[in-house]
Amino acid sequence: MATPKKSSQKKRAPAVKKAAKPGLAIPSGRIGSLLRRGRYARRVSKTAGVFAAAVLSYLTAELLELSSKSMKKGATRLTPRAVNLAVRADDELSALLGNVTLSRGGVVGKVHESLQKKKKGSKKSGKKTSKK
Q: What is the CATH classification number for the domain harbouring 75?
């Protein structure tokens, strides 16, 4: 009765986390368990957490990109004001976050047209200079 040698058995590859396969920074396993514990639906698939993490990752990247564009030149710190201006300027994010109030975000400034100073048009002067 010969037993197989243990060294001839295949070595198992190291475990890869669910979030590492698609390259997500947000933990998809934790989001999946939160979906199950939250009782948002009777059944939650195994890939629901990965999908939700991918959506959150995309929205975060989009928000950071637009916020960095709306910052003042030379500013190095992302403020709630810049995030709020970016959200209100974008149509899709404004529809998604329309009822959201960002703390310390301020309001988007707008001056009504009738209150703005009127532009002086370039009128052709009727004065003619006479040469003597």
A: 1.10.20.10
In a domain, 102, yes or no: yes
Look at residue 17 in the predicted model and tell me its pLDDT. Answer: 72
The count of domains in the chain is 1
Distance separating alpha carbons of residues 92 and 109, to the nearest angstrom: 20
How far is Cα 70 from Cα 16, in angstroms, rounded to an integer? Answer: 38
The answer to whether position 119 is within a domain reads no
SS3 content of the chain, % helix, strand, coil (to 5): 40, 0, 60
Q: Is 117 helix (H, G, I), strand (E, B) or coil?
A: coil
In a domain, 91, yes or no: yes
Rounded-to-integer distance, Cα 67 and Cα 105, Å: 12
Contacts 24+ apart (CB under 8 A), 54-57: 54/22, 54/24, 54/28, 56/26, 56/31, 57/24, 57/25, 57/26
pTM over the 0.85 mark: no
